Amino acid sequence: MEQARKLLIKRRNVEYVLQYSNVTPFMWHKGKYRCFFCSEAIKDPAVLREHSATAHQFENLELMVYDRTKNNRNKDAAVKIDVTNIACRLCPQAINSLEQLIHHLIIAHDAEYDMSVPNCLLPFKLDKDQPTCPTCNMKFVFFEYLLRHANKHHLSHQYICDVCGTSFQGENHLKMHYRYYHREGGYTCEYCGITLATLSKKILHEKNVHLVNLSTCPHCPETFKSPYLKKLHLANVHGVEELKIKCPYCPKVYPQESIMSRHMRRVHLREKNVECEVCGDKFFGPYDVKLHMVKHDGEKKFVCTVCGKRFSKKGNLNSHYVVHTGQKLYSCTLCNKSFSHQANLRMHTKTRHENCELQNNALVEDIDDTEMVQMEIIQDELDVKDITEEYIIS
User: How far, CA to CA in Å, does 291 sit from each of 286, 297, 316, 359?
Assistant: First the structure.
């Protein structure tokens, strides 16, 4: 009953803000902005604001807010609103933020907004080229990154997973998280029949080992494990001007200032601020230290079900498993040899075609620093015989 009471208060709070201000509610579905009232997909936020203000000026807010929050998944979710040029409809008082607007409506206009219920609204400043977080003024190239940032940093997360400590804004999100990551039920891979403990492990196994549900490049056969990697590929390989933040030291481009800055500090400035407690070697970040610790720990708990070879990292096991599947997706453009891993192709090009200096330099520069670490660890774990066989078979 308490959850039902909070939902009623949330709906009323949303209605007050939509009724007494000029903010624009919207939805985000399948990579598109959608009108909160009629679900029409509208690419330009300026057009979306104009459409909402004119076409839905006299909408029944109570009915619409109820309709948008009756779905189980949306009961806990905050209603997304565009607060660009936010203003009060009842008076000319200057307003700078959603928080200021709420306090103004309560104090100046006696609005019955209940502050005890959090996460009713999530504000954004929408712009076609550079959407902005109004809470911390951080700018993004793509809205999906801004949405992820806002959900993570600017919502009051009251529900905490007692297994891993991750927090969520609502009970439904927590339940979905638990079902996906922690509920063990013996999930069987549809392609090779092995049993995985959780649903997330099954999905990850099928994606990494059997290349299931990978995003494909529209211009070449390359596949990707995340939308970010696909966009990065489109910008760097095919010249698609979607990613606009360019590194000042090299031709690489990134979808977010913070990611570009991290690349610059890691690759070009060679920052190493985190020290290994065992040997004193310094690394860029905690993740690099974690990878390095494999050399000290010596534990190899991931076992190949085909040949029994053991690995210290699951990623290395997945990379090794491709040898058994026989899939060779990467071909050398100079001699037509094929390889199971892109890193092997690059190493082959560097060592076998050293006379092509210009192409070699471009390929070596294109190897990401994290991939270099991955290659180093894989080669540490495979003996010389394995590496030789890989090239002989190819």
Answer: 9, 10, 11, 30
Q: What span, in angstroms and rounded, lies between the C-alpha atoms of 227 and 139?
A: 19
Q: Which residue from 135, 373, 354 is spatially nearest to 272, judged by alpha carbons?
A: 373
C-alpha 138/C-alpha 159 separation (Å) is 26
pTM, full prediction:
0.50
Instruction: Output the CA–CA distances (angstroms, integers) from residue 377 to 138, 201, 290, 344, 392, in the order listed.
Output: 36, 22, 12, 14, 21
Dig out the tokens for 348 from the structure: 């082959």
CA–CA gap between residue 177 and residue 200 (Å, rounded): 10
For residue 255, the Cα-to-chain-centroid distance in whole angstroms is 11
SS3 15: helix
Token reading at 197:
């403990």
Helix (H) or strand (E) holding 233: helix 227-238
CA distances from 40 to 65, 126, 143, 164 (A): 17, 17, 18, 39
Please give the span between the terminal C-alpha atoms of the chain, in angstroms, as a whole number. 64
Structural domains present in the chain: 2-153 (no CATH), 214-271 (3.30.160), 294-393 (3.30.160.60)
Give the list of residues 6+ apart from residue 266 with CB closer than 8 angstroms, or none: 284, 285, 369
Residue 121 and residue 156 in contact, taking contact as beta carbons nearer than 8 Å: no
Q: Are 288 and 300 in contact (CB under 8 A)?
A: no
Report pLDDT digits (tens) over 282-324.
887 777 777 777 777 766 777 887 787 887 777 777 777 777 7
State how far the Cα of 224 lies from the Cα of 215, in Å rounded to an integer: 5
C-alpha 8/C-alpha 63 separation (Å) is 12
3-state helix, strand, coil in the chain (%, to 5): 45, 15, 40
DSSP character string of 82-130: E-TT--BSSS-----SHHHHHHHHHHHH-----TTS--SEEEEB--SS-
- Do the beta carbons of residue 382 and residue 321 sit within 8 Å? no
pLDDT 10s digits, 348-369:
887 887 665 444 444 334 444 4
Residue in this structure with the two tokens 């056969």, named with its chain if needed: 221
The candidate with the shortest Cα–Cα distance to 46, out of 24, 64, 21, is 24
